Prior knowledge:
This protein is mainly α. 56% of the residues lie in helices and 8% in strands. Strands 3-4-5 form a three-stranded antiparallel beta sheet. The protein has a two-stranded antiparallel ribbon with strand order 1-2.
Amino acid sequence: MGRKLKRGKAGNVVQYLTRTKAIRKLQLKLSEFRRLCILKGIHPREPKKKSKGANKTYYHAKDINWLMHEPLLQVFRNMQVHNKKVRKAYAKFNPELAQRLRGLTPTYKLDHLVRERYPSFVDALRDLDDPLTMVHLFATLPAEKRYGIPNKAVDTARRLMLEFNAWVVRAHALRKVFVSVKGIYFQAEVLGNAVTWLVPHQLAQALPTDVDYKVMLTFLEFYECLLQFVNFKLYHNLGLKYPPVHDPKLEEAAAGLSAVMRDLAGVRETVGQQIEEQAAALKAVPDGKKGGKRQPEATLGERIKAIAAGEKGEGQQQQQQVQGQ
């Protein structure tokens, strides 16, 4: 007869954790826990038997143990400690120290998460629908301070949107277009994979108040990093440099895609202007002051050929004089 297991040592009780217990185990705030789960791609689970109640959110124990080894976990803890220092400086009426501490905020990168979640380039292309839709959405939204939408996020989203659309035009990858009430659906063939995304209509956007923009900005943060990798690879396959140069004049004129396509098409008006300026400067210089280019000195072989040709010519002249006499 086998050994009798104690209650709470096996089954769903051990395999799943509630969100509160997971937060305590990771020593994070709720907002930081959500952010980490979004960046790592971890979602809540639905166990067959909910031991702690039906109104609880459950996570798999293996996922939480996996999060404990994430380098971003320590960065988020350092950011939490740093924010306490900033608040303490403001509480002591020391704005100079608070501003200096704000400039020393810990930073992090998401490159390792992109390589971890998408081991191959094809895996990233198969999951490119949501990133493109999110980037196109934020590219059309205004930067609202009351909703926490920064200018940098909107500018980066717009730049990535133009770069990807420029590649689609240059590679002739667009296959289908459909106009609906929600927006315009585009479908392109990227290295044999069909990628579909939604572009909102160019209308005045009214931001709803019942949307959690912090969660959306967390998704956007990861999607922007992913799209940078994808754009770099796509441009590299076509033999183009990345990132492309945006024409500042066309940007000011709100030309949109034309500001990027001008560089991809190989148009270099600045080079032509420099050549014209140099030609005009040479014409303005007097003839006496124009210095010709220095001719390269003849090599030893060229000198020997010249001497031999000279001697041969002298011999022919002597023979002609003898025959004349």
